[in-house]
Structures are given as C-alpha cells and as structure tokens.
Amino acid sequence: MDPRQPQEGLLRRIAPEASLLLGAGRAILLQLAEPRIGTAVVRHSNFVADPLSRLHNTLAYVYALGAGNERQRERVVNFVDAAHRPVRAPRDPRHGTPAYSARDPRLQVWVAATLYDSATLAARLTLPALEANDEEALYREYAVLGSALQMPDGFWPADRAEFERYFQQMLEQLQVTEEVRQAADELFTGRHAPWWIRAVLPLVRDVTIAQLPPRVRELYGYRLTPTVRRRYGAVVRVLRTANRVLPRAVRHAPMRYSLRRIDEGRLG
C-alpha cells in the first residue's frame, strides 16, 4: 500500500474523530514499554524535555495517513523516516540496554499495533458500533501506519484474530525501566506545556491508567483506584454524548489543527 496515494474507506472516515484521542496516552505508554522503543525514545529524542512532542508527532502521522492529502502524507512520512534513520545502538550489557534500531520492522509493527488497538478501544466506547465486516476492513487499512515506514508485506498480522494473538504475546514481553517510568511521569506533568494543557493532564493520566492492560499498569507502578475508575467513566460518557450532539466541524477540529501544523512545517 503506497502511503502517498489517497486512502479511501473507514480509516479516512473514523480517524478524524476527536474521541479517538481517548486512547492516545495508552498507545504511547504501550510503545515505551517495549524495551527497545523505550530506550530509543528516551535517549534519542526530546521526549523527557518535551514529552508532548511525541503526542503531536504521533497525531500528525495518524491524521496525515488516515485523512490527509498527498502533500501532507509525504511530509510526515519523510519527517518520521529522517528522524528514525540515525536512531540505533548496539546492546550494552553494562546498563542492560538492548540493541535497537528505529527502522526495525518488528518495532514498526508494534507502534502501529498500539495505535490501532488504542484507537479501536476508544471507538468502541464512544462511536457507533461497526459491523463485523467493517471492523475487519478497518483493521486491514490500519496496516498503512506501519507500511508507510517500510514495514515489509506480511509483517502486519493477517486478520484480527491473528492480531489478538500477537498483541497478547507482546504484552507478556513488555518491560518498563526506571528511565521510561520517569519519562511517563513527565508526560503527565507537562511542565513545559501551556497552562490549559497542564490543567487537563491529571484527568488524561487517570484515563490512561484505566485503559492500560493490568500487567502494563503494574509495570508503570499505577493503581486503578475507585477515583480513577469514576473519572474514566465520566469522560467516556461525556465523549459518547458529544459525538451525538456536536457537529463534525467541532469533532474534527484536532485533526484540522494537526494537519495545519504539517502544512506549516511544525513537526518535531
């Protein structure tokens, strides 16, 4: 699938929905819990100093490939590819650091898998249910998130049943180092973010904690308290109602903002 060709179908229709942002924090923490990805992000990016930049770049990537035009897709694919090219290191037994390369297709599959799984979780909670055939079609379309970064054909699990087996196997392999745990805490602190973002980050943290698979939540040292459950339930109810009453222009506003940042060259 050529990422520079217009994509038609369910991904293009569903990706712009703002309620899918419900799963953004979950996707990022699942990515960081893969030891090679976590080490690469912490040591080769500005994530610790500016953790929200990864969220911006991730959203730009998803929105451009899911619903952007040819120029936007090409810009974001080239940006991510250039950012990944120098990110590599051999195994360091002294510090327990695994060998990694950001262009490793196995890591690209995991990143795409976290985006798909987190987005579909949010969609099931906040959007009208899809028919089984549509869910399978949407799953196949999500493969573009990996193939755009040179993920070879055949790496994306063939269907949702195979994906579920792959995802569960990966969950058992995840590990969270102390430096990744600290980086995750920085994500929810947002000390360099505007005040209006910092104001909502405690709620974002609770939503993310509630959505994480139990084992991963424990790896990060988070607890699913009654307060976290209550706040998460309230957010889901609000988003479900908002999707029924708000016009598309409002629901798609975050996508338009992200695509505008791409047009203005504000990536990184």
Describe the structure.
The chain has 268 residues and is mainly α. It has 15 helices and 2 strands. The chain has one domain. The relative contact order is 0.18.
Unreliable residue runs? 1-7
Shape: globular
Radius of gyration: 18 Å
* Proportion of helical residues: 55-70%
Number of structurally distinct domains = 1
Strand content: under 5%
Secondary structure elements and pairings:
Elements: H1 10-14, H2 24-32, H3 35-44, H4 52-67, H5 70-84, E1 88-89, E2 100-101, H6 105-126, H7 132-141, H8 144-147, H9 160-173, H10 178-189, H11 195-211, H12 214-220, H13 226-245, H14 248-251, H15 253-263
Helix pairs in contact: 2-6, 4-5, 4-15, 11-13
Kindly list the characteristics that best describe this protein.
268 residues, mainly alpha, two-stranded antiparallel ribbon, 2 strands, 66% helix, 1% strand, globular, disordered N terminus
Brief characterization of the structure:
By secondary structure, the chain is an all-alpha fold.
